[in-house]
Amino acid sequence: MGFLAPAWLALAAVAAVPLLMHLLRQRAGARIDFPAVRWLASAEQEASRRLRVRQLLVLLLRVLAIVAIALAAARPVLRGAGPPSALAIVLDDSPSTGALVNGRPVIDRLRDEARALRASVAGVERLWLVTADGRVHTGDRAIDSVLTVARPAAAASDVAGAVRRAIGLARGAGDGAAVAVLTDGQASAWRDTLDARGVRMAVLAPAGTPAPNAAVVAVRARPVRWNPRGTLEAALQFASDSLSWVASVGEAEVARGIALRPPSESTLVMRLPIAAPDTGWFAARVRIAADALPADDDAVTAVHVGAPVAVRAVAGAYADAAVAVLANQGRVRTSGSPAVRIGVPDAGTALPAILVLPTDPGALAGANAALARLGVPWRFGTAQGGDAPVTARDDAFRGDSLVRVRRWAPLVASSQGAAGDTLATVGDAPLVVAGERWVLVGAALDPASITLPVRASFVPWLLESIDRAAGSGGTPRVVAAGAALRAPVAGAALVDARGATVARTDRAPLIAGVYRWMAGGRVRGIVEVRRDPAESQLARASLASIAATLGGDAAHLVTADATTWRDAIARGGGARPIVLPLLLFALGCLLLEGWLTRRPARAAALPTSSPVPA
Fold it and tell me: Considering 67, 91, 155, 564, which has the largest number of Cβ atoms within 10 A of its Cβ?
């Protein structure tokens, strides 16, 4: 027997109270002989004997009741063979479980074994099913539904996190709980140390070497904007000496061929010069023939095809130099119309434009008047001085956290709810805000005002700002599946490659691909959801290494044999609470004690007459 809350055993000390009271009542008084009642001695002794027995019985019942209540408060359990009192099942449904073994996905076998375990512990008091995304399913109907339709997740999952969640559930359920894990044993998922000490666990994982897996690990467009030519870089993982591949842009196939495995290598980065057949934003894709893991047989990236945007810069030497660099790379052109103007807002400014703070404080009022004329719902605030850091949002400065301002003006909305997407701030004050066909910057583009022009992030930032102002969607935001998202403009809808609207827009979709932010019939942003390359590595962790990550406790079993694993959970010993029997016993003691104390004492039979000795 064990106790889940042994501290409550101290309550048994209260049993000393009735004992102490009983002893205090046993004080001996002075003995005085009274000859006249000497004849009553025998009757008094008989009544006293009965009373003493009853008092001792009442005392015993009170002590037993108090001890039983103390034991019940300590939550005792009886251990023995049988199913656990509570069970958390972890089902690894990560993308790698879609790998085919003998023509059948690994997830199918894991799902079948989970159902078999579910049937063998049908009487378990508490049951949870935890999937690799960390979700906890409870209730017979919900668990059975998941075990019926479970498929490999489309996004990278956290198997270690799911196991931690299950361990926490088992610990919260107390002694007698257990954790059962079904996994494909992918080595990349079993690297973190898990504190499973004191928790009974059984892990079912396959042994041996998985089938070789060929994959398109990643695809990148170089550059992101083609006009209309560009390059696709594809990282391939080989399972044999060669791979056949097909490249497409949108729905159009643009190239195909066979890649040969390099000597002593398992991967190859392939560079494909491509001429796109159409203009706009597309998903560029490289795919290979289906093999052991179909989920990684293709990969996509975002690419924009179209003529370079015309730009006219009148914002100083640093902006001129950056535009010249972009023009030399074929990313923008310095002639043609309509052109994106980079400069201070004035009477001659028209949209699209990148609008910057004038260096002359006296020109601030005229600049704000020009913003009002252009319909930009933001204004330059009071000019500020002093060195301060700039915080970029949505990776606007490409991870550059060292940009600082020296002379600047906070941007102020001209009305409540003014449209615009804040891209950078100084403290809580907006510094860069973008809207429809405009980007507003609360600093001049020179190092005396902001350090951005002398940072490596300046040219990429300027190109993205030009694209934002031109309405071509800016630079794609690359995210992992399920990552947090924020719409570039209020009311924008996220649309997939087929034109279907994604229901949830605060999180990236779970399926890798290229998605467009659409508002007002125009592309306002691009989201590229990438698959985790680690999911293509099907190498398995050894059973010993999995056991080591759990802490090597004797209560842990890691096996490839499903029967052994199932028996370890179903017959490995559980714990049954005995709180209710103890409480019923205490109640019985108290009821009997109450009956005894209220039962009238039987009068002692006294003689009516007796000769008085002489």
Answer: 91
